Amino acid sequence: ILNVEQSPQSLHVQEGDSTNFTCSFPSSNFYALHWYRWETAKSPKALFVMTLNGDEKKKGRISATLNTKEGYSYLYIKGSQPEDSATYLCARLYNFNKFYFGSGTKLNVKP
Amino acid sequence: DAGVIQSPRHEVTEMGQEVTLRCKPISGHDYLFWYRQTMMRGLELLIYFNNNVPIDDSGMPEDRFSAKMPNASFSTLKIQPSEPRDSAVYFCASSLLGGSNQPQHFGDGTRLSIL
Question: What is the 3-class SS of chain A, one letter each residue?
């Protein structure tokens, strides 16, 4: 069973705080991990595509790391802003095109 | 550039009625995916197409669900007859080529309520 688990389920931080959350997945037969940002009433938008153990990706204040041997990825947000409030989803590629999504971490950044 | 376009955005209908959800993928994308999002099960893949051909429909919950892609710019997901437990948000996504390096581009979803 390809469980993709994300923690915490929700997170409340103050503007300016840095934060991170976790995506855990089975490490065997790894192909890729994707991170998506999902704002309420909108569609999920791709943040990062990660394929190699040790990958580190960065986009502005948001970065992600990948450890395929132990089966986890971290997403970091430095200096959170209210506009960062969203649900962050990770998805593990099972085979060529089938992704299993985690249930997401809902981030709320208070001004 | 236009993204993935889904219609309708909201659909409310009575149990037993046929429901048709529509999707226009991004032009040039070879892969199209249908997902269902519920509180209990999160985002689940129902079916995906490559070059208009259904490749994997193992996620389709029952025979009441069917999906077609008659051409590269249009796909439908049909539920007949609909049941209250089909109430969910249905997303369509497309990707250029396939494989591990291709992010999926999602539409805004159709919120379906079956009374």
Answer: CCCCEEECCEEEEECCCCEEEEEECCCCCCCCEEEEEECCCCCCEEEEEECCCCCEEEECCEEEEEECCCCEEEEEECCCCHHHCEEEEEEEECCCCCEEECCCEEEEEEC
